[in-house]
Amino acid sequence: MKREYFGTDGVRGPYGGPVINEAFAARLGEAAALWARAEGGGGGEVLIGRDTRASGPGLERALAAGLRAGGLRPVSLGVAPTPAVARAVVARGARLGVVVTASHNPAADNGIKFFATGGRKLSDAEEAAIEALLPAQPAPAAGAEPERVEANADYVAALAGILPAGALAGWRVVVDAGHGATVGTTPEALRRAGAEVELIGGAPDGSNINAGVGSEHPEGLARAVVARGARLGVAHDGDGDRCVLCDETGSLLDGDEILTLLALEALARDALAVRTLVVTVQSNLGVDAAIRAAGGRVERTDVGDRHVLERLRETGARLGGESSGHIVNLDLSPTGDGLGAALGVIAVMLAKGRPLSALRSGLVKFPQGQRNLVVEAKRPLADCAALTRELAALTSELGDSGRVMARFSGTESKLRLLAEAGSRATVDAVLDRLAAAARLDLQVR
Fold it and tell me: Where does 188-289 show beta strands of DSSP type E?
């Protein structure tokens, strides 16, 4: 069954547009409740969290009305990071969790994503089943305001326990919360471990989320780490399921470097479950080389942390993620958790007694480049004859020394091209060839 509204991470788009508006949110809430009741029978509780966008409260109220019309009881968690919502779903045995967020997107966008019982993300088939139940009209907005429950305190307490009390005494850490949902959680967890925290991106006003700050814009974090003599910096996206780090020299670490560092340390202790790390097709080939050299193996999935989670459960692995900074450690959280990833790296720094700049040396990246082409319409790649031929030709030419990929964005009208090879010049030439082929098949703006 094909999905019309759900993308790689829930439903997302401009607030006030044809999808992200109160009327659709109410319809989606009712459909989700009907689906959940059909799956498990009876009523139950749905936990709703949101990030700091001005459009969040209205969408939350509309969702609550739809959920109530569908026979479930909405409970508001207020502003809460996505991993805090997933954890609360598990702790309270809720039927569903819902997060109103557009993650790293600008404030003008918003979105809605779901967690099923146990804190897991929905599959493509489950999202399609919800779409099939969408009512023609939204539920009436009547009804009491949802009960309010606090989830952030339990989340912080659980994650802060990763580090011994006082372990970060004498440490200075810069946190960029992106004016998002982690503004009150990541700084608090680090302070509980004894760190002195310098906070930037910590004044959300409803319209400044991700605006030149956070994991999508970590340049300010890097400058602050160097200027303030910090041990490291931590940046999150708007809903806190991503993490980008900065070492003490001001050099940034993406998700591939974080995952490799964590996996190599676990392999050295024979603690990496089934000796396997799960990454997506976008991760650098250097990850595979580093993990193989240490006696482990890498599994690759389609783009999206949801696919990573599915492969983790299929294989019995526990650690995986994306180069974007979605890091999933199922021993800590049922979903991607930016704070959990940061604390995991800090735990390695403490155990090894080495700075982050030294620990990151395990990954030697292949030169990589990406190019995003804005397209008038998305066509199945199988129907793009010129691009398909060029992809096959380049795959043959590069062999084991590189790779190419083309895919459409799940949330934007973009064709994403990726190339890896032995030199930057080769990467640029490969991307030029792919872009030229794509223009033969697609209308590119």
Answer: 196-200, 232-235, 244-246, 252-253, 276-280
Structure-token match 């060029």, residue found: 390
102 token code pair: 């557009």
The CATH code of domain 255-339+356-362 reads 3.40.120.10
DSSP string, 322-372: -TTSBEEETTT-SS--HHHHHHHHHHHHHHHT--HHHHGGG--PPPEEEEE
- Residue type for 216, please? E
Instruction: Indicate whether 180 pLDDT > 70.
Output: yes
Of these residues, 55, 76, 103, 215, which one is catalytic? 103
User: Is pLDDT of 155 > 90?
Assistant: yes
CATH number for 11-152 (one of 3.10.310.30, 3.40.120.10, 2.170.150.70, 3.30.450.40): it is: 3.40.120.10
Alpha carbon distance 30, 203 (integer Å): 34
CA separation for the pair 198, 204 (Å, rounded): 16
Q: What's this model's pTM, rounded to 2 decimal places? A: 0.89
Please confirm, yes or no, whether 396 is among the known catalytic residues. no
Q: Looking at residue 171, what DSSP letter applies?
A: -
Contacts of 392 by beta carbon, 8 Å cutoff, 6+ apart = none
Choose among 425, 380, 430, 375: nearest CA to 405: 430
Residue 330 backbone phi and psi in degrees, to 5: -65, -15
